[in-house]
Amino acid sequence: MVEVKAAGIKRRSYRKLRVEQRSDHHNVYVVLLAPAAGRIRKVCALNPKRDRKKPCVYVGMTGLSPEERFANHKAGIKDAWVVKRHGLRLLPELYEHLNPMPYEAAARMEQDLAEDLRRTGYTVTGGH
Question: Is the whole model's pTM more than 0.70, yes or no?
C-alpha cells in the first residue's frame, strides 16, 4: 500500500483517526414541549405519577448536534410528531454535561435520562 499523506497524516493513521472521531459523536438532548403536549392521552398514560407543575419534555438521541436535530424535527425531517407540533426549545441544562458519547452509551443514556426525569415528576415522551 502506498503511504499517501492527507493534511500531514499518513493514510493509515488518518483512517484510524476518522474512526475514533466518529465513535464518540452521539448526543442525548431534551426538548421543552408546549403544555398542550401534557394533555395528550398517550403522553399522560406514560407518566401516571407526573407533577403537573413541571414541564413536558421529549428526550432523544442523535448523531448530529442537538441544535441540528431539533431543527430537523421542526422541519419535518425524521421528526417525532410531538416535537414537530409542540417543541418549543432545547433544555441544554438537562443534558449538556453528558455529551458527546459513543452510540451504545447514548442509546442507554437516552433511556436512563428519560426515566430519571420521569421519576422526578417531569412529563416525559421519547426516551426509547
Answer: yes
